[in-house]
Amino acid sequence: MAGDENVRVSEKLHFNTFEFEFENLHYAEGRGQTYVIFDVKPQSEGGRGERLWGYVRNKPLGDHAEVILMSKINDHLETHQDNYTMTWYMSWSPCGKCSSELVPWLQNLLKKQHKLTMHFSRIYDKDRAVDHRGLCDLQHVVSNGFQMGVMGQTEVDTCLAEYVEASGCPPLKWLHMTDSNATQMQDKLSSILMNRF
Ligand SMILES: [Zn+2]
Known about the structure:
Elements: E1 7-9, E2 13-14, H1 15-21, E3 35-42, E4 52-57, H2 65-79, E5 84-92, H3 96-111, E6 115-122, H4 128-139, E7 146-150, H5 153-162, E8 164-165, H6 178-193
Parallel strand pairs: 2-8, 5-6, 6-7
Antiparallel strand pairs: 1-4, 3-4, 3-5
Helix pairs in contact: 3-4
């Protein structure tokens, strides 16, 4: 996995890529890839843990970003054993297939006292029923150790401050619309989780 061009460790995402890929439109034309910005931090200082951060994207016609990232994190947990708090900022919510792999992986993570929060910019529903069922399955894992939800301006601001190469760049074109779009996306998510789709 090391050296994989789809996994960038300790590297910020380019501003233009973030602006295009993370715009939280209801209908987002041309966004065929999933990007996940990740930060895996030791829960306490002075242990054997080491921070792992960067971003990952899916391989076109290949592994989805989440699958690549789970594998990358598994390697890290094996070689740098500690308890970690992880945050993922995702351009799309997981598809049904990824959710079915994420659920057991998350359960295992929680058993080992790790924590993960997942924020997604848009809800992926290409294969509607399957993808929505996947989100419901993920919702069943929600607990003290695992949270998921829609990205709002707070999360976008965090990305711009910490994980996007934004110095000297103009404000995001859609920043002023982020929270109102996020409210709509949150309503959609709530309907899905209440099984009203
Ligand atoms: Zn997927």
